[in-house]
Design goal:
heterotrimer; A alpha+beta (448); B alpha/beta (172); C alpha/beta (197); A: 448 residues; alpha+beta; Cytochrome-c3 Hydrogenase, chain B; 2 domains; three-stranded antiparallel beta sheet; C: 197 residues; alpha/beta; two-stranded parallel ribbon; 3 helices; 7 strands
Chain lengths: 448, 172, 197
């Protein structure tokens, strides 16, 4: 009896399930394998869908800012400012110059911490645990800096429509320069550990290649596209804030493989530090004394009580200073006026005015109470900022009420993840790790 | 010497050994993962508490750190991972999204993982500062030292209620 | 009547029957296109040398069911409170209008196109009716459209004709309904396990 049959060869399905050791986020990657070679793969996303767009429609315009923080949670400041930029264009207001410089500085600090996390985590997945520890150490320096400005390390809710929450604290410039010195030291060490490391180069070079034309067809932007040789950067193409006054280069790669993207990210961190230093040199001076109408006043001694006005002693009433709780630091008229647009329709008044006079109280009421709030006219706007992964777009439609009608986020890593099956095809299973690491998938942004 | 005294000392010794050698499974989903990374690395260092050894397999882990928002799509996966862990096991709800759903009160988010599994320690915060995490870890260690575990108290009827949906074509 | 901006003029001269309208708001050009003509217009925009939109930056849906009907004032039985003078929206030089009636066209698919060659952008909107919203897929032109269209199907229920694999991407398969539609309540949960409140 001859029951021998030729052995059937079938491809094996390997599930790299939603919970996996890679630090980048939860996706389900089912790869079809022929031995060790990836024949095909299926990417399943949506495991972190938190309904950002629906939540943003539910409340007034400033309510979406904490939700926007948690989109790309490694560089939350960029999301904040991208959203605020869209609403400001809808309202046709412009933030003050100092505020724009602050936004540029904080965006670049956020970008550096994003690249540190990405490169550190992908190095760790390849076995370079020390590099991860060094880069997180550098990131802690930056997070302390962010904490001194915004009050929180990660989810900062710092941007506001028309400005930012508060001005930079005392000693910010010295603290920033110290932090950047530390980051530069760490980057030198990591370059020494990784860039010419035989194992690292062998694993990263020649894996995850995407050609220029395919990258453009997939609408990939950011360091991923620049690794393939296209010098496209929203900060240079359609400059926003004060990027047109700052000089920086756009690093591009050649081959479009993981190694080039790693080099692009390392160089971008250096360019970001260059931007921060230029901005610190160019930023216009600090808090000014402005009165209720936004006019600059000479410095005055701060001892006039508001009650004096009730007594009929109204001389110098406009310069009256209210003594505020230290937790409201940065909300007094001076710093507030320097970093928030003088726009009653959109910006909360300084706390002295809210607690000190009836006009400020009314303005505050009209901006925060239920049923009242910022009201842009009917319209739509798509604002693009350069996120750490690429072009982060916010498409906002306003119907004239105090709530956004539609807030659509154009997530940069969505299109990169769509290209992942193509990136993995033909490679080995072990190449999935560096490729997925260099995609820098952030679940909050991908799934919103 | 009475048997009770010896078993009490044995339980105390077991508790002491277990609490200082935590093999954690960090089920990282979202932003809290960044603070988890910050707590685990050199500046705040969970390793000095004995908990610096993440095991990315539920079969090898005893504490499940659920870090970050759990959506309804992820819930069956989380439950399956929890079911695969061997007893004694503990669950830490890290971040307010896992404690109560956070500010994501919508169609997509599980309003607290204690709706689908028993939780031992809740660490609120959005995200919690590393000091909060270490405080929660110390409370967990005290609980482990006493030998208490919420998983042991789970009534027998619950597991059937939370069976993961059967998806035969999940690999396609 | 303002002269058309360049891209709109190009489209009007090349494919006039496809355009439902066009406007410009805050420096951004928008054209409205018939649903049946969209694949042809998309191909034209991608291939014509003056346009060369090689990047489909974004593709999303919008549901205009409750447009302009939102709460305008604090909920009280009396008449809505008039706004103080400074709370009126600042008059913007362009006016914005949807250009199609809300009652006839509930949905819209919005395409944001970008040209890396000429560095210009265009927004293309396709209004769709409430019953059976269908538009042709552009996956043949831009590979990015694949996932964007799946997401729009998932969130809005807009069907894309010719899409190779139109299934849910952000929600799970057992989910019923399309969550970003305005008539889907935000608190309505359909959990796979556990309590539903």
């Amino acid at each position: 009896m001859d029951t021998a049959r030729p052995a059937e060869a079938r491809h094996m399905f390997l599930n790299m399930g939603p919970s996996h050791p890679a630090m980048h986020g939860i996706i389900k990657l089912v790869v079809q394998l022929d031995g060790e070679r990836v024949v095909d793969s299926n990417v399943d996303i949506g495991y972190l869908h938190r309904a950002f767009e629906k939540d943003a429609e539910a409340g007034p315009y400033n309510n979406a800012i904490p939700y926007a923080d948690r989109l790309n949670y490694v560089s939350p400041l960029i999301n904040n400012f991208g959203y605020c930029l869209a609403i400001e264009r809808l309202l046709d207001i412009e933030a003050t110059e100092r505020c724009q410089y602050i936004r540029v500085i904080m965006s670049e600090i956020s970008r550096i911490s994003d690249h540190l996390t990405c490169v550190g985590a992908s190095a760790m997945e390849l076995g370079a645990f020390t590099v991860f520890l060094y880069m997180i150490k550098a990131r802690e320096w930056l997070w302390e800096l962010i904490e001194s400005v915004t009050g929180a390390r990660l989810t900062i809710s710092y941007g506001r429509v028309g400005g930012v929450k508060a001005d930079l604290p005392e000693g910010f410039e010295a603290q920033t320069r110290a932090a950047l010195r530390e980051v530069r030291k760490v980057l030198l060490e990591c370059h020494a550990l990784l860039t010419r490391n035989r194992i690292f180069v062998d694993r990263m070079q020649g894996t995850g290649i995407i050609a220029k034309e395919r990258a453009i067809s997939y609408s990939i932007t950011g360091p991923f596209l620049r690794g393939s040789g296209v010098a496209l950067d929203v900060r240079k193409a359609t400059p926003y804030f004060v990027y047109d006054r700052l000089s920086f280069d756009i690093p591009t790669g050649e081959h479009g493989d993981n190694y080039d993207r790693y080099l692009v990210r390392m160089e971008e961190m250096e360019q970001s530090m260059r931007i921060i230093e230029q901005a610190l040199a160019q930023i216009p001076a600090g808090p000014l004394n402005v009165d209720l109408e936004g006019r600059v006043m000479p410095p005055m001694p701060a001892d006039l009580m508001v009650d004096e006005a009730k007594m009929g002693r109204v001389a110098g009433f406009l310069q009256a200073r209210v003594r505020l709780d230290p937790t409201l630091e940065g909300s007094t008229r001076g710093p507030h006026g320097a970093v928030n647009a003088n726009e009653k329709r959109a910006v909360l008044p300084p706390k002295e005015d809210t607690y000190g006079n009836i006009e400020g109280l009314m303005q505050h009421f009209k901006l925060v109470m239920y049923g009242h709030g910022i009201r842009p006219s009917k319209g739509e706007y798509y604002s693009a900022v350069e996120g750490a992964n690429g072009e982060l777009g916010f498409y906002v439609i306003s119907d004239g009420s105090e709530r956004p009608y539609r807030v659509r986020v154009r997530p940069p890593c969505f299109t990169i993840m769509a290209a992942l099956p193509e990136l993995l095809k033909g490679g080995l299973v072990a190449d999935i790790i560096p490729t997925f690491g260099s995609v820098n998938m952030i679940g909050g942004e991908l799934d919103r | 010497m009475s048997l009770n005294w010896m078993t009490t000392r044995r339980d105390a010794a077991l508790g002491w050994a277990r609490k200082f050698s935590i093999f954690q499974y960090p089920f990282v989903t979202a932003c809290c993962g960044m603070e988890y990374m910050a707590t685990a690395t050199s500046h705040y260092d969970m390793d000095r508490f004995g908990a610096g050894f993440p095991r990315f397999s539920p079969r090898q882990a005893d504490v499940l750190f659920v870090v970050g928002t759990i959506s309804h799509k992820m819930a069956p996966v989380l439950r399956r991972v929890y079911d695969q862990m061997a007893e004694p096991k503990w669950v830490v709800a890290f971040g307010v999204c896992t404690c109560t759903g956070g500010f994501y009160n919508n169609y997509a988010t599980v309003q607290g993982i204690d709706t689908i599994m028993p939780v031992d320690v809740y660490i609120p915060g959005c995200p919690p500062r590393p000091e909060n995490v270490l405080d929660g870890l110390i409370k967990l260690q005290e609980k482990i030292g006493r030998g208490e575990s919420a998983a042991l108290r789970e009534p027998e009827s619950r597991p059937a209620e939370f069976a993961a949906p059967h998806r035969p074509d999940a690999h396609l | 009547m303002n002269p058309d901006p360049t891209l709109t003029a190009l489209l009007r001269s090349a494919v006039p029957q496809a355009l439902l309208g066009a406007h410009q708001y805050q420096g951004q050009e928008t054209v409205l296109v018939h649903a049946k003509e969209l694949p042809a217009v998309a191909r034209f925009l991608k291939e014509h040398p003056a346009a060369q939109f090689d990047v489909l930056m974004d593709l999303g849906g919008v549901d205009y069911l409750t447009f302009g009907k939102a709460l305008k004032s604090a909920p009280s039985r009396s008449t809505p409170s008039p706004l103080p003078y400074y709370m009126n929206p600042k008059p913007v030089k362009d006016t914005w209008d949807r250009l199609v009636p809300d009652s006839a066209y509930r949905f819209e698919v919005v395409y944001h196109l970008y040209s890396s060659v000429h560095n210009h952008r265009l927004r293309v909107k396709v209004p769709l009716p409430s019953a059976d919203p269908v538009v042709g897929s552009v996956t043949g032109l831009w590979a990015a459209a694949d996932w964007f269209e799946r997401e729009t199907w998932d969130m809005y229920g807009i069907h894309f004709d010719g899409h190779p694999d139109l299934r849910r991407i952000l929600m799970y398969e057992e989910f019923k309904g399309h969550p970003l539609r305005k008539d889907y309540p935000i608190y309505k949960r359909q959990p796979l396990m556990g309590p539903s409140n």
